[in-house]
Each structure stands twice: as C-alpha cells, then as structure tokens.
Design brief:
The chain is α/β, with parallel strands linked by helices. The chain has helices spanning 45-55, 81-91, 96-111, 127-135, 165-168, 189-202, 227-245; strands at 3-4, 9-13, 16-25, 31-37, 60-64, 116-125, 141-147, 175-181, 206-211. The chain contains 7 helices and 9 strands; from the N terminus they run ββββαβααβαβαβαβα. Helix 6 links the parallel strand 8 (175-181) and strand 9 (206-211).
Length: 248
C-alpha cells in the first residue's frame, strides 16, 4: 500500500504546539486510527519507519512529539549518551498530567481526522509503551499494544517519579497486548510479575508475551535490533488491531 510518509500537524496546546506526525494510506478511504508513542528520543527514523509500517496495513497513525514543552518542534534526540541523558531527564521533568493532556489532545485530533473511522488504538515502545497504556485508559481506545513499557512497575514516570498507572489499571477497558524482552534490565522479572498480578486483579482483557530479547529489540538501528522478533511481535499487534478495530 502506497503511503503518505509524513504529514506534520501542530496541535495547539496551552504552552505552544505539539507537533504530531501523521502517516496514512494514500488514496481515498477512511481507516482506524492508531496513536504511536515514541521512545525518549522522539520521532526518530526508526519510529518513522514503524509508523509507516503500521499505516501500510491500513491505519491512520499519529505520532506526537512527547517533549514539545521543552524542545522546538521537529527536535529529534540522538541515539547517543547526550541524547539518552536528555531524554531521560525530560521523562522525569514533565508532569504526568502533561502526558495525559497530550493523550487527550492527540486522540481528539485523530478521532476527528477526515481519514479516520473514529475507532482508536494506541501503541508504544519503551517510554511510549507506558504512554500508550495510560492513553488506553481513555474509554475511546479499544486496543493497545505496549512494547516493553518502562516505569510502570516502579511508578516512577514524570515529575516527582510518582505516577498512578498501576492504581488506574482498574479503568483499563481496551484489549491490551504486552510484549516484554526477558533480557531487558529496565523491567525485571519481579516488575513484570507485579504488572501481571495487577492486571489479573482488575480483570483486564490482555495478552502477555515474554520473548528472549533485549530492550529496544524493535528499533531497527543498533546492536539490539532483532528482525525476527520484530516480525513475530508486530504480527501480534496487527492481529489485535485487525480483530478489534475492524470489528463490525
């Protein structure tokens, strides 16, 4: 399927704009909407390729710049130590309420997009996996795919390192896919077990996979990339989206 690679839109926010990159199938038609949340580096080349990959399967994909309050529109942090340090610093600088306000804004935008059917899902990697999960607490979201989401088990997202994601999982109505790398030091076994126990406690509708992969195994740059796991795990995501978002 031919794609429009990127159609950036600056969504008005109280502190300026949140640049949101839109990837969609070319041509006529309306498609379910997917919000893709990036890693701490914002909308890098691997994130763009992931967005185009999802869009190529028949979805309108919106990718917001998560640090828009602190960086100029279009800023991409490098996959190096300074970029990592900056991304991690901003992850714990931005208030959780800011992440939640962003989610409402981008879901509003996507739901009203002329190419969107109004059916919505979220997906994210690393920091974005956590943000995809929080965004899925919005009752409009019907499905969510969370790839190795960080800081959920520890409750340390945002300013003050004191988020309430685990407590709010009782609100999760979206069918949710979790994919973890067993060799990922950011979310150890005990952390994964705590998240799964909470999902069971609240009666969530979820799918759970643990694979032999490192953190960031989906990122198609760097030594941790595992193309076989990319194919396998994104296949689970696409199956979920096709089943839930295209349901009559």
């Amino acid at each position: 399927m031919i794609l429009l690679n990127d159609d950036p839109t600056d969504l008005p926010m109280p502190d300026g704009v949140m640049r949101t990159h839109v990837f969609r199938p070319a041509g006529e038609g309306r498609f379910p909407g997917v919000v893709l949340y990036s890693e701490i580096y914002q909308v890098t080349a691997p994130i763009r390729r992931l967005a185009a990959f999802i869009a190529g399967h028949g979805y309108v994909v919106a990718v917001p710049e998560v640090y828009h309050e602190y960086e100029a529109p279009g800023t991409v942090l490098a996959y190096d130590q300074p970029g990592t340090d900056r991304g991690n610093d901003l992850k714990f600088t931005k208030p959780v309420a800011g992440y939640d306000a962003d989610a409402r804004a981008v879901l509003d935008f996507l739901q009203s997009h002329p190419a969107c059917t109004g059916r919505l899902a979220t997906v994210g990697v690393c920091l974005g996996g956590h943000l995809a999960l929080r965004a899925a607490l919005d009752p409009r979201v019907q499905a969510s795919a969370c790839f190795y989401p960080t800081d959920v088990h520890s409750g340390t997202l945002g300013q003050g390192k004191n988020d309430d994601t685990m407590a709010r999982l009782v609100e999760l109505k979206a069918e949710t896919l979790f994919v973890w790398g067993r060799q990922d030091p950011h979310v150890p076994f005990a952390g994964r077990e705590a998240i799964r126990a909470r999902l069971e406690e609240v009666g969530a509708r979820y799918e759970w996979h643990e694979v032999n992969g490192a953190h960031a195994f989906l990122r198609d740059e760097g030594y941790r990339y595992d193309p076989a796991l990319f194919v396998q795990t994104t296949g689970w995501m696409l199956d979920l989206f096709a089943r839930v978002l295209n349901r009559a």
